[in-house]
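Email to the structure team, subject: Aldo/keto reductase model.

Hi all, the expression group asked for a predicted structure before they design truncation constructs. Nothing fancy, just the tokens so they can compare against earlier work. One-line instruction: predict Aldo/keto reductase, return tokens.
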Amino acid sequence: MMESIQARTKLANGVEMPFFGLGVYQADEGKEVVDAVKVALKAGYRSIDTASFYKNEEGVGQAIRESNVPREELFVTTKVWNDEQGYDETLAAFERSRKRLGLDVIDLYLIHWPMKGKYLDTWRALETLYKEEKVRAIGVSNFNVHHLEAVMEISNINPMVDQVEFHPFLTQAPLREFCRQHEIQVEAWRPLTKGVIFTHPVVQSLAQSYGKTPAQIVLRWNLQHRVVTIPKSVRAERIRENADIFDFQLCEEDMGKLDALNENRRLGQDPDSFSR
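Reply from the structure team: attached below.
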């Protein structure tokens, strides 16, 4: 049983990554993101997920500095955006992100989307950053199996993480199995479906049964699938509430009830047809 917000998964290279963290997509740069990150760190979060596209890396860095949490306890992720991809472009984009965050080393650097004609060169840049010890781990986001296979054909280092849309409406079973076989840690974005799933009768029933909120039920389901989970919020009470999921465990039957909600239904874009 995952009993603590401090629980970590060991990536393929031995680096330990928290199973639970804060996503800051759409958190405004400045006070909003600074306050959100500070609340999260005070509540025990140790993983923060941002991206150059989010335009709030400076605020994340400021919050980290002002929180006085030891750097070695933190796990900071950022991502290279689509118009920054390519070998040289990615190396330059990384330096911009690193400067905005105010960090010497980034814990995890991801390719945000598989830009056709570019993502393989982008991956080579990530390998360079890893070899130069500027990043502790490298991975991808929104990669389907065939994208992962293409990277693995040309890589010296396989992706260590694949951050994808994952929730009970989109359980991604084939992708998760592929990642399991190749020691790629799956990470979930939009784990709470922007609240769409909260009114589903199954989720409502389980929330009542366990004395938890619908969000807590769904987040617990994520973790029990051993998927790294980074719900986003800028509201202090919600940030704390989301983390209150380590004092209960869904039984196997109830996990199955949530698994059965799968419709292969995306609420975000499909990596094979995204328009960015």
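The two ends are 39 Å apart (CA to CA). The chain has one domain: 8-259. Ping us if the truncation boundaries need rechecking.
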